[in-house]
Design brief:
The chain is an alpha/beta fold. It has 8 helices and 7 strands. The chain has a 7-stranded parallel beta sheet, with helices on both faces.
Length: 252
């Protein structure tokens, strides 16, 4: 039955940036589909862990700063020590810095690139080695509307998210032979802490809402269907694709 292909029973998923917002929504969605979780974030993961454990799923919390490349090995080891396997990786951790292009500092650039792009490469590389040995897996990256557009006042974020889309494609090309599917989700304008500045700006908020055919900001729950689909056997013939969950933003 087709619905069985969406089940994730017995699977283990690592979700970065899962203490709140989009990462929390996707982690809970994976647990609702049957997966056990390894949560990764710098902040307090207890709220997400409680939501997952309430569903009867196992949950491992790993505090790590993904700007530090040394954290990669620790994350993978912790997941394997606890579960003995990694079936799904969701690279969701992200940060943003806002400033005019001419005023953007080196620190602003490095802080975003390290988390939003470098960590995607290095954590995916480490996890893919594990997946290749065991016969396959699913890697899902979080892209953005800024993977398709330039935006304003966020040069490092735009560069990183454009890079995530390209990295998704090359990873798909090289890892398909190991039965590893690599795809991405590009969330539209989602009501989270990361976008609070835009939501609270009357001019920008109005302009954004006028551009969204659905007529409202999205929520973390809106990503559950896409992440479960890409993590499941139902998407086994999808490779290197970025799915926009955007309320129609790109269509307008």
């Amino acid at each position: 039955m087709i619905l069985d292909k969406f089940r994730l029973d017995g699977k283990v998923a690592i979700v970065t940036g899962s203490s709140k917002g989009l990462g929390q929504g996707m982690a809970v969605g994976l647990a609702e589909a049957g997966a056990d979780l390894a949560l990764v974030a710098r902040g307090d993961l207890s709220q997400t862990a409680k939501l997952i454990e309430k569903l009867g799923r196992k949950c491992l919390s790993i505090n790590a700063d993904l700007a530090d490349r040394k954290s990669v090995g620790r994350i993978v080891k912790a997941a394997l020590d606890t579960y003995g396997r990694i079936d799904i990786l969701v690279n969701n951790a992200g940060t943003i810095r806002r400033a005019e292009f001419l005023d953007f500092t080196e620190d602003d650039w490095d802080a975003v690139i390290k988390v939003n792009l470098d960590s995607v490469f290095f954590l995916s590389q480490a996890v893919a080695k594990v997946m290749a040995k065991k016969g396959g897996g699913k890697i899902i990256n979080t892209a953005s509307m800024l993977s398709f557009q330039g935006g304003i006042r966020i040069p490092s974020y735009t560069a990183a998210k454009s890079g995530v889309m390209g990295l998704t494609r090359i990873m798909a090309n090289e890892l398909a032979k190991f039965n590893i599917n690599v795809n991405a989700i590009a969330p539209g304008y989602m009501a989270t802490e990361l976008t609070s500045a835009l939501q609270n700006d009357p001019v920008r908020n109005k302009a954004i809402l006028e551009r969204i055919p659905a007529g409202h900001w999205g929520s973390p729950d809106d990503l559950k269907g896409a992440v479960v689909f890409l993590a499941s056997d139902a998407s086994s013939y999808i490779q290197g694709y970025t799915i926009a969950v955007d309320g129609g933003w790109l269509a307008r």
